[in-house]
Amino acid sequence: MVKFILRRLLYALITLWLIATFTFVLMKNLPGDPLGEGSEKIPKETKAMLLKQYGLDKPLWEQYLTFMNNVIHGDLGASFQFPAHTVTDIIKQAFPSSLQLGLISIAIAIVVGLSLGIIAALKHNKAGDYTAMFIAVLGVSIPSFVLGPLLSYYVGVKWGILPAGLWKGPSYKILPAIALSFGTIAILARLMRTSMLDVLNQDYIKTAKAKGLNSITIVVKHTIRNAILPVITIIGPIFVNVITGTLVVEQIFSVPGLGKHFVTSVYSNDYTMISGLTIFYSSILILVIFITDVLYGFIDPRIRLGKGGK
Amino acid sequence: MMQTTSQTTENNNKFAPVSSANLTSERIVRPSLNYWQDAWRRLKKNRLAMAGLIILVVLIVLSVVVPFISSYDYQTQDLKIKNASPSGAHWFGTDDFGRDLWTRVWWGTRISLFIGIVAALIDLIIGVIYGGISAYYGGKVDEVMQRTIEIVYSIPYLLIAILLIMVIGPGIPTIILAYSITGWVPMARLVRGQMLTLKEQEFVLASRTLGASPMRIIMRSLIPNALGIIIVQITFVVPTAIFTEAFLSFIGLGIKPPLASLGNLLSDGANYIRLYPHRLIFPTIIFSLILLSFNLLGDGLRDALDPKMRK
User: Fold this and answer.
1) CA-CA distance, B311 to A82, in Å (whole number)?
2) 3-state SS class at A78
3) Measuring CA to CA, which residue among B256, B259, B260, B284 is closest to residue B270?
């Protein structure tokens, strides 16, 4: 088990290193001059001084080492847009809203998605199954960046039920969280349905029925408990889904989170911000995937004892 | 001795050979179906999947035909009629430059489908070759290739795609490239898994005994037998690539106007939703129909092509 965890940890570190290096290489190959347009007019001495100030006069490998060293110490550089703030400051300030939005949406998705999946499996090939799966397919077909504006316009503006944007109190969080959770609901519902159907065909369910247990006990204690196990494997993809979702959903609902910062940085070519946020998001994702792997190894002995599993 | 002979004669009388002309009950009446015919029969029974297939064919035909026969093109501006609501002349209305939305939506569908299909082809080529080699050689080769996949798999592709596009600049090839960097991984995994099962089977042993080269075995024995699963995967790759384009357009890194793609139509539409809802509604309908039909068809194909699902 220790060996398993160590190997996972090694992969996680290699992936992170690759992403950071890739980011560095791309940043060095950006079109244009690092000092901005019209830099040929700057006197030579000033230019040399500026380059020195940003460490751009050193050889590439030394710049790379400095960059990696800074990244390891959590220093992601200063933002171009807001020169007074470092990227790390902006993350600290904006991340909590994003995290909150993400967690609310995941909570909604887990409740709704798993319920849909369970209903679909228990009503296999009946109306309940088709309805639940139709909702799930809709979730895949209507991405958050389409659902978001529609919700904001119809529920928020036209019918005026909930606020259409901004981030001031609990009621402001409902619409963005729904828009964000739709895709995740679909993933969860489908997986839960397949997994439930799988478990329902197992011999131990037959045994439980033969013993004369009532159907609620069978469903709750025997089926759902076993069926929920594979769901853990998709926690990683769900996080990816939610993080990329926050980029657009925050933009649509004017949520002052990290995703909105990311998108505005793309529009204003704030390269340090984008590279910093990419590294930050990647670290979260890789951490989540690492934890999921280890967790799954603990729960399911087949993975631990097999040859490392998938 | 005598007794035995008489018994034999008796037996001979009892079990007279039946003339083959009388074997009507043994005759195969129905035509035998091969794998694909069988799959098609099962697919036809799945109403949702057929609905998906029909919608998809209609969308593809419209996206090919409409740009040719429409009396407008995707870029001609007419500022007198900007943001017009749907009417007889402009079925889906017009946008802020007075361009006909009906034509632009179908141009966009065409470009989005093109991106989806090319991305799927690239995926297919890389995934099949990678998965095939990894499974066929096994051992150390497989080990190294699988570890590589695990690392690539945990890279958040949309973020990397965004970085890449910012450096290279947006455009159809960049979007396809950005998607393909990690898009091939699920396909490679799937092909490898399928091949690992297939390569243990007797017909592969037979062809190896006959001296077939590894490439020939992969191309002629393994891939055709894994084709079902590959096709199913493709029906899920195409909508993902189309989604990626739309997502990138939404954050300003997609196809640039005046060219239309479903992504930039959706993103423009979302900005104008309060004033001109028609600009979001129509692209949304077409976009969701594409994703919906691919997903329905993919689900149906998965059931139809998997012999284990036979009832």
Assistant:
1) 63
2) strand
3) B284
Contacting residues for B38 by C-beta, under 8 A, at least 6 apart: none
Query: Of B52, B97, B78, which Cα lies nearest the Cα of B260?
Result: B97
Higher pLDDT, A297 or A6: A6
The answer to whether the bond into B258 is cis (omega within 30° of 0) is yes
Min Cα distance B3 → chain A (Å) is: 57
Residue B34 neighbours by CB under 8 Å, 6+ apart = none
Q: Which chain B residue shows the shortest CA-CA distance from A286?
A: B154
pLDDT, tens digit, 9 for 90 and up, residues B159-203: 888 888 888 888 888 888 888 888 888 889 888 888 888 878 888
The reply to whether residue B267 touches residue A145, judged by beta carbons under 8 angstroms, is yes
A260 vs A60: CA distance, rounded Å: 32
Cβ-contact A85, A270 below 8 angstroms: no
Give the model confidence (pLDDT) of A145-200 as tens digits.
888 888 888 887 778 777 777 777 777 788 888 888 888 888 888 889 888 888 88
Within 8 A by CB and 6+ apart from B16, the residues are none
Question: What is the C-alpha to C-alpha distance for residues B174 and B168, in angstroms, rounded to an integer?
Answer: 7
Smallest Cβ distance to A278: which of B163, B169, B295?
Answer: B163
What DSSP assignment string belongs to B228-259? Answer: HHHHHHHHHHHHHHHHHHHHHHHTT-SPPTTS
Which of B156, B243, B251 is closest, CB to CB, to A143?
Answer: B243
Tell me what percent of chain A is helix, strand and coil, each rounded to the nearest 5.
Answer: 75, 0, 20
Per-residue pLDDT, A304: 54
Joined together, the tokens standing for residue A303 give 């993975």
The residues of B whose Cβ lies within 8 A of any Cβ of A are 147, 150-151, 154-156, 158-160, 162-164, 166-167, 169, 189, 239, 243, 246-247, 250-253, 266-267, 269-270, 273-274, 277, 280, 284, 287-289, 291-292, 295-296, 299
